[in-house]
């Protein structure tokens, strides 16, 4: 067996799976196939008030005879796979709203469940990587803005040029063993506090 495939199956056997679907043949088919794959699914019905503590959640879309929770993949940490009985405008709207990583349409069959599971897990992991990159970028932008503002404050209050002001921030960061952004945040916060107290002008003198 290929190493990547082996790792894939090892991953699937280690994850926690929740199956939220009404009792019956369809749920038994899904649960049986998950067991064959190596996933021990915890069964739920009716819908739990909150997302189960699981790595992957198969959940029924509301189809009229019952209501499903209004979960969104952007708000939960689990991989979401929707289980839908129809392909109607309403169900498609609900599917888009859930931002599910995968979907299975009735009639459910054993063939296709593994592929859907693998692709959904891959989509979730890609989504997480992209979100991490976005958060790092946002943090970098925030840090740069703080450093720029702190540099301007030093230039105005200490009569320094830009290189000297930035060098001062770096030296303080080294002394305190923190990042330049953290020193900048301290300076900006102190400046804002003085301004709120009406002491900003006195601080310049």
UniProtKB/TrEMBL annotation:
Stored Pfam families: AmiR_N, ANTAR
Protein name: Response regulator receiver protein
Domain ANTAR, chain residue ranges per copy: 127-188
Signal peptide residues on this chain, from the entry's feature table: none
A GO term for molecular function: RNA binding
Gene3D superfamilies on file: 3.40.50.2300, Winged helix-like DNA-binding domain superfamily/Winged helix DNA-binding domain (1.10.10.10)
Matches recorded under SUPFAM superfamilies: CheY-like
